[in-house]
Amino acid sequence: MDEPHDPPEGQVTTIIPEGSHAREAAVPYTDEVLDIDPEVAERRGGPETEVDAVRQSLGITENVDPLTALLNAPTGPQVGKWHCKRLNADFEIRSLDNDTYGKVQEEATRFVRNRRTGRMEKDIDAPTMSMLVCVYGTTNPNFQSQQLLKHYSAASSRHAVRAALLPGEVDGLAEKILQLSGYNEDEDMEETGKG
To answer: What are the DSSP calls for the chain, one per residue?
Structure first.
C-alpha cells in the first residue's frame, strides 16, 4: 500500500482496512479519497462524522474476525437506564439472556382455536410479552418486590407493571430492554409478539 499523502483541499483520505468492501465494488478497497465539503462537514459535526456518514452510505464496512469478536465481547448482561418522563425517574434495566427470553415467550404464549381449520395454534400475546419483558429486564424498581405488589394490589409482577405504568411507558421500557438484548429497534421490534 502506498504511503499516506495529504489530500487536496476539500478532500479527506480515509484508510479502509483489508477485507473491507463497498456494496458496488468489484474488488476490496484498501484506501479511498472522499470529496468532503468542509462547510457541510462542520455543520454535521466535523470531518470525521462526515467521513463516517459517507463510508456508511457507500456500504463500506470493517470486517472483524467473528471468533476474535466473540472472545473480546463483554460477558454478563448489558445494563442501561430508561427515563420515565411522567415520573421523572430513571429505571435501571438489563438485557435478557436466552433462557429468560424463552421463559418470557412461554409465559406470553396462549393457544387459540383457528376458526378456519379448527386446530389449536400458538399465539403470543404482545401486551403480556411487553409486561413480562419489563418484569425480567428492570432491576430498579423491582416489579417482583412484595412492596410494589402490595401497593398496587397486584396478583403478579406482570399486573404490577400494568398498574404502575401507562401503556406507552410499558412499550417504551420493553423496547429499551429488548434493544439491550440485541434486538434492532427498526427491524426486529416489529417481529416481537408475533406468533
So the answer is: -PPP-PPPTTEEEEE--TT---TT-SS--SEEEEE--HHHHHHTT-HHHHHHHHHHHHT------HHHHHHHSPPS--EEEEEETTTTEEEEEEPPPHHHHHHHHHHHEEEEE-TTT--EEEEE-HHHHHHHHHHHHEEES-TT-HHHHHHTT-SSHHHHHHHHS-HHHHHHHHHHHHHHTT--TTTGGGTTT--
